[in-house]
Amino acid sequence: MEKKESKNIFALVGRNISYSFSRQYFNTKFEKENLENNEYINFDIEEIGELPKKIEEYKKVLKGMNVTIPYKLEVFNYLDKFDKKALRVGAVNTIKITKKGKLKGFNTDIYGFKKSLKPLLKKEHSKALILGTGGASKAVAYVLDDLNIKYKFVSRSPEGKKQITYDEISKDTLNEYKLLINCTPLGTFPNIENCPNIPYEHLTEGHLLYDLIYNPEQTTFLQKGVEKGATIKNGYEMLELQAEKAWRIWNS
């Protein structure tokens, strides 16, 4: 109990998050920058309904939270306020606890993804396929809208005109859509052999493959891009950028 009372606590809300990038990143940051009065922990919960109990447990010292799979959408029901971008995206990955104890939701994935993607874009990357339709894909779509890049979502269970199935991706599709963004968990450690089911044989040097996964450093999805000479990018820089944005929000 002594630790709870003496340190500012920040936490990651998610399920099965022992591998957590955030906890390692922030605790290393606190050590390097002599911010020893801060500690980052995991709120590893089986369902989002357990969150209020966690918040109450750390009420006096909890200053901010990050949110990861699978709660970026569900957490809205537990917030008092929302940033306009988070509301438009429909996903929250950062929560600030105000001086009055209110919970305000933000989406720093938008910032991290945009800043890490922009330097890689070329003329041919005017159309994108977003693989997956979860919380992270919504931030990706927001950024693509902002950059005037047309896109379609790829889903196993498509809904509406902007979504297609994996089976619908053909050579012609990949000739038209040169930017591919993996927002699924396929290929994450330890199941590193997995990858989205697309016709990789039709990839070219003109393609850009971006994988939000950062562990392993080069997923099977990215490896298959490298084999065809495509440009690749993993999600590590995006995570660093969104983490620093979250830190600024918590301390503003």
From TrEMBL:
Residues 12-95 form the Shikimate dehydrogenase substrate binding N-terminal domain. This is Shikimate dehydrogenase. Its EC number is 1.1.1.25. The keyword Oxidoreductase applies. InterPro entries: Aminoacid_DH-like_N_sf (IPR046346), NAD(P)-bd_dom_sf (IPR036291), Shikimate_DH-bd_N (IPR013708), Shikimate_DH_fam (IPR022893). Pathway: Metabolic intermediate biosynthesis; chorismate biosynthesis; chorismate from D-erythrose 4-phosphate and phosphoenolpyruvate: step 4/7. It comes from the Bacteria. It comes from Tenacibaculum polynesiense. Keywords: Amino-acid biosynthesis, Aromatic amino acid biosynthesis, Oxidoreductase. GO terms for molecular function: shikimate 3-dehydrogenase (NADP+) activity. PANTHER family: BIFUNCTIONAL 3-DEHYDROQUINATE DEHYDRATASE_SHIKIMATE DEHYDROGENASE, CHLOROPLASTIC, SHIKIMATE DEHYDROGENASE.
